[in-house]
Amino acid sequence: MSSGKQRERQMLESIYSMIALVFILVTCIELCDAATVVDVYRLIQYDISGAPLGSRFATLNHHAGSLHLPPGVDLSRTVVIIPVHELNITLVKEFIAQRKPLGGLLFLLPQMLNFENRDPTSESKYQIHEKKLIKNVLVELERVLIYANIPYPVYFAFEDDDIDAVLADVKRNDASGQPATATTGSYKLVVSGPEPKRIASPTITNIQGWLPGLKADGDLNQLPTIAIVASYDTIGTAPALSVGSDSNGSGIVALLEIARLFSLLYSNPKTRGRYNLLFGLTSGGPYNYNGTHKWLRSFDQRLRESIDYAICLNSIGSWDNKLWIHVSKPPENAFIKQIFEGFSTVAEELGIEVGLKHKKINISNPRVAWEHEQFSRLRVTAATLTELSAPPELLESTGGLSDSRHFVNEDAIVRSIKLVAESIARHVYGYQGKNIQIFADDTSLAVNAPYIRSWLDILSQTPRVAPFLSKNDPFVMALKKELQAHTHEVNVQHEVLDEMFTIYDLTKAKLNIYQVASVTFDLLLLLVLGSYLITLFTFLVITTRGLDDLISLFRRPPSRKVKAV
């Protein structure tokens, strides 16, 4: 009796071992082979006055597709991969305008736009006309994406060998006319994690520094002030890539260099001017210059009234031979005429053309296109110097994908700095209309090109979206330290961004790309393995215990009758 139970127990152990083996094999079959893992950057998600815009989701778990899919195919479970150099902007507009169901979009950017890439060959393979074409395509793409409410994830990634190989396989599969599904097999794109959350009470930080002018003995009047201002933060289609080399990295670099140049003059009482110079690095530029508004509101009336004029620097690094001075007061205004004539005289000497654009402000309209308009609303004379001939739309020219180091002209920034510094210096020292070069080349007061280049490199590698910059962010602290090196009484002002703008987190993620076999193949393989295991099990039982034991496993046990008492 004990030997029978032992044989039965051995038989059950064999069955359990076989079942466990089957489960292990099934699990192995359904696992995917990881093809590659890449960094991806999510399309901005934000609200304006409660209206949802941008990409509203972050998680992905769909098959990969390409633009080679036949028309009419269901793409609700497909992530369409689109290299920028193959971009069909009309098709993207159709996807968004018609709200076609999509699993997601993945745009592949050229490596030359990757600020983390130190390979110089990534840029050299592009001709000048190719760079301009890429920039124009990106500008058009951003205009389509940033103002739309997109109900699926949209990501950006940089081209590399791994993802190019994946895309080539996807294209071959799509060219056959069969979309990627669970039954056909393909690549699967997975981004996991929580859903995005709004950033509560984001902080914006303004930094200011002074170069006090020289007062005459016994003079109790307050000296007039000239303000040089530049907004330093950015925002773009992909916040994690928003470095804004030109807008407004060029303005920041120019302000720091102008502060350095005048600090050399003001450090000596003999060459210190009878004007105070106020330098302001403001935040909240993309949000109607909200930081500038709050910075100016913090001034007392006496200080505001002492400002002779303010010059705001914005996007001065990608122009050929013409800059624009934008003003809110009429060109006939005596102060505006004085500013424009001073700049025009210096510009002519430098071989630069300067134009004047007047745009009257509407106090009832919350939209602020230029930084100087915040000064004008407080009746302070101000102007914006820029390469842009027309006011940008909201969140346009604020550091998008196309605004990278490769599209900035260092010579243009140097000439812009010379124009501003020389014009202000002649105003301060009363040299208007005189051909006197204060910041001449090959002197101790010459513009420092290596200094400009080093700061431009730093800014071109630093995304500066205000809601993601903390009060003690290393970049903010670096700006403060640099301004302290050239000016006095440097202080930092922290404010809360107006509630009109709401920004969401999760701007960067890891994309896992899996190569998956089709379900049909999985089922066929499982059937073959199952048949093999059953045959093997039958053979082992017959050879070790005999045919009768095998038959007894599948025989119904006899029913037991209960005897009546």
TrEMBL record:
For this UniProt record, give its keywords in alphabetical order, as a comma-separated list: Endoplasmic reticulum, Glycoprotein, Membrane, Signal, Transmembrane, Transmembrane helix
Query: Under the cellular component aspect of Gene Ontology, which terms does the record hold?
Result: endoplasmic reticulum membrane
User: Taxonomically, which superkingdom?
Assistant: Eukaryota
Work out whether the entry's keyword set contains Cytoplasm: no
Asked if the Swiss-Prot or TrEMBL record annotates the protein with the keyword Transmembrane, the reply is yes
Question: What is one Gene Ontology biological process annotated in the Swiss-Prot or TrEMBL record?
Answer: regulation of signal transduction
Q: Which Gene3D superfamilies match?
A: Zn peptidases
Coiled-coil region list: none
Q: Which residues cross the membrane?
A: 523-547
Q: Which family does it belong to?
A: Belongs to the nicastrin family.
Family matches, as PANTHER family = NICALIN
Protein name (Swiss-Prot/TrEMBL)? Nicalin
From what organism does this protein derive?
Salix viminalis (Common osier)
